[in-house]
Amino acid sequence: MTKPEDTLPAVEAADPIFDYEMMIQEDKVHQRLYTEPGIFKEELTRIFGAVWVYLAHESQVPEKDNFVTSRMGLRPLIIVRDSQGDIRALYNRCTHRGSTICRESLGSAKSFQCPYHGWSYFNSGKLSGVPWPEGYACDFSDAKYNLAQVPRVASFRGFIFGTLNLDAPSLEDYLGPVREPINDWLDRHPGGKVKFSSANRLKFMGNWKLAYDNSADGYHVLFSHRSLLAMENRHHEDEQKGMSFYKGSPDGAPMYVKYYPNGHHFKDKRPNIENRPGALWEIEGIFPGMEHYEALFRERYGVKADRALDLASSEPVNINVFPNLHILGNHVQVTQPVSYNETDTTWYGTVVVDDDGELSGAVDDINTIRMRTQEAFPNFGEVDDLANFEQIQAGLAAEEDEWVYMHRGLGIKDRITEEDGVFTAPATDEVFMREYMKVYKLLMTSTPNIAITREV
Amino acid sequence: MQTVDGSIHTSHYIDDEYYQKLVSDFSGWRQADREVTDPVFRDSCRRFLDLEARFLDEVHFQDWLKLFASNCVYWVPSSADGGDPRREVSISFDDRRRLEDRIFRLSTGAAWSQRPTSRTVRLISNIEVYATDQLEIVMVRSNFQITEFRAGETRLWSGWYAHRLRDSGNEYEILVKQVNLINFDQNLRNPSIIF
C-alpha cells in the first residue's frame, strides 16, 4: 500500500464554507451543501473516498477478462475480473502521463494498452511493457509503474463495492441491517439472484444529494408524480394501481420508512399489499402487451401463473445504500456525481435467471414483461423528479435564504420508533434524511485513512 | 375496447410473434436493390415525415397520434440498431396505449419535466425509402435534428428515424417509428419530449 504524498489540508472550521456543525442541524441543512464547489471537492475524498462505494454488479463481468468501467466519485475505474478470476477495481489512469487506458464502457481484455504512448498492463494491473525500454534507465519491475487499484474491493451477493479507506469496517458491517431488505429483494428470484440488462440512463443538473434526499421520500410522491398517478389510474378508475396507495393519507397506510446505520434507508411498501401469489401482479401498472401475456401465463402455467406474474411485477421497495446505490422496483439505480451541480442517474434493468428450471420455461416471457414494466418509471416518473431536482438547484441560488428543512415528523410523540440505531416511521417522514445527514456530517469532519495499492 | 375519447384500454397485439417480427423487420432492411428511387414516391414520404414533424413541433399531439396505426409502436432503443426489446430496456417502447398515456400525461399540466413545454423545431433530411416484402409497406430512413428550447436553455437532439409505413393509396399510416439517438447509450438530460 502506498499513501498519497499530498494529503488534503486540514479542514478550517473557521471558514464558514466548511463549518459542518453550523450547516447541518437537527431540523435543517444549509443550502451551501448543494451549491458550493469546495464542499463537493471535499466529498470526493471524505465521502466517496471514505465509505464503501457501489462500483458494479458481478453479472456485468461474468467471465474471466470481462471488464466494465465505473467511477468512485470522479476517479475513473476499470472493474475487471482478471485472468485469475479475481475482481479488481483498477484505476483507469496510465502510470506514465495519466491518460485513461480503457475507453470502452464494457468488454473483454487480457490487457490494456494506453493509446497515448503504448504502455501496456495485464488486467491484474501489472505493467506488461513499454515501447523502446532501452530509452529508460529505470527498473520497470518497480511496483510504482503498475496501475493503482482500490485496496479494498468486496461483493455482497453480486453487488461489488470498493473503498480506499483502510480504517473502514468490513463491507458486511458497513451494510449492516440494510442487508435484510437486499436479501429479501434477491431471494424472491430463483437462485436468489438477478442479472443486469441494459439501462435507462438519465442525468440532472443538480447536486447528487438531491437524489439521495429523494430516495426514501414518501412525501413527494403524490405531488411530484401527480401526472404519473393520473396516467396509471385513467384506465382503471376503481382499481388501485402502482403508486396509488399514496393517495388519501399515506401516513395511515401500513407502509413505512426505515433508517439504518451508516446512512442507508429503506421505504417498504410491501405491507400495503396482501401476502399471497398474484397480489403484486394485481397492482402492477399497465404496460405494452399486458393482457396478452397475462392470458398466456394463465393458459400455459396454470397454478404457477401467479408466481410467474409476480416475478414480472415490480417489487414495492426502495432500498438505498449510501452514497450511490438504490434498489427499487426491479431496478438497480446508480447515482454518479459529475460535479457539484451535475449528477448521472442510471437505471439498470434486471432480468431473472432460472438455472434450475423452476419456472417451467416462463423465464423468457417474465423477462420480456420486466423490460416493459421497467421502462415506465424512468419515462413517466423519474423525469419529473429530475426536473424538480433541477429546480431545487435553481432555487438554492438564493444564498441568503439559507435553510433546507427536513423536520417532518421531528418532535411528534410516538411517531418514530428507534431500536439499535434503526429508526422506523410513517412513509412521509423525513427521519431518514435527518439521520443520514448526521452520518454525512461525521464523515465530512473526519479524515479517512486513504490508500491505493499496486501489484508487486 | 374503444372509448369515447378514442383511446384503447387493452393491449393484446404486443406478443412474442410481434416482437420477433419487429426485430426481423428492423434488421438488414437497407438493401441497395430495395431502394425506391422514384422521386415522386420519395417526395410523398418526405411530405409525410414533414407533416409528422410539424405536428410535434406545434404540440398538436392528437393530430400526430392520428398518423399512427391502432397496433403501432413508438420505439427509442437504448442500443445501436434497436437490439431485441425482449432482452433490453429501451429508452422508450410504447404500444398504442402507452403512447396515448404519454400524451395524456403531458396534457395533465402536472408533468413537471414538460412544464414549461419545450419548444422544438425539427429538421429532417437524407431521406431513403426501401421496399419490403409487402407491397403496401415501406421503410423510410431519415436523419433528424431537433432543436429544443426549454426553461431558458437551447439543446440539440440528433439521430436517425426508421419509419415503417403502410401506404393505403392516398395516405400513410405509421406502423412503427424507431428513433435512433446518436447518444442512445449516454445519460440523457430530461428526455421527456416526443422525439
Describe this structure in words.
The complex is a heterodimer of chains A (456) and B (195). Chain A has 13 helices and 21 strands. In chain A, the strands form 5 sheets. A 9-stranded antiparallel beta sheet of chain A has the order 12-18-17-16-15-14-13-21-20, sandwiched between helices. In chain A, strands 5-4-3-6 form a 4-stranded antiparallel beta sheet, with no helix packed on it. In chain A, strands 2-11-10 form a 3-stranded antiparallel beta sheet, with no helix packed on it. Chain A starts with 19 loop residues before the first helix and ends in a 12-residue tail after the last helix. Chain A has helices at 20-23, 32-35, 37-46, 171-175, 179-187, 208-214, 221-224, 226-233, 279-283, 290-301, 305-312, 363-395, 431-444; strands spanning 28-30, 53-57, 66-72, 75-81, 87-91, 106-108, 111-113, 120-122, 127-129, 152-156, 159-163, 194-204, 256-259, 265-268, 317-321, 325-328, 331-339, 342-352, 403-405, 417-419, 422-426. Chain A folds into 2 domains: 53-156, Rieske [2Fe-2S] iron-sulphur domain (Rieske Iron-sulfur Protein), CATH 2.102.10; 177-442, Naphthalene 1,2-dioxygenase Alpha Subunit, Chain A, domain 1. Helix content of chain A is 27%, strand content 24%. In chain A, a hairpin with a 6-residue loop joins β7 and β8. In chain A, α10 packs antiparallel against α11 (305-312) and α11 (305-312) packs parallel to α12. Chain A has 456 residues and is α+β, with helices and mostly antiparallel strands. Chain B is of the alpha+beta class. Chain B has a single domain, classed as Roll (Nuclear Transport Factor 2, Chain: A), CATH 3.10.450. Chain B has helices at 16-25, 39-57, 61-65, 96-106; strands at residues 68-76, 92-95, 119-131, 137-150, 153-167, 172-181, 188-189. Chain B has a 6-stranded mixed beta sheet with strand order 2-1-6-5-4-3, covered by helices on one side. In chain B, β3 (119-131) and β4 form a beta hairpin. In chain B, 34% of the residues are buried. Classes of the chains: A alpha+beta (456), B alpha+beta (195).
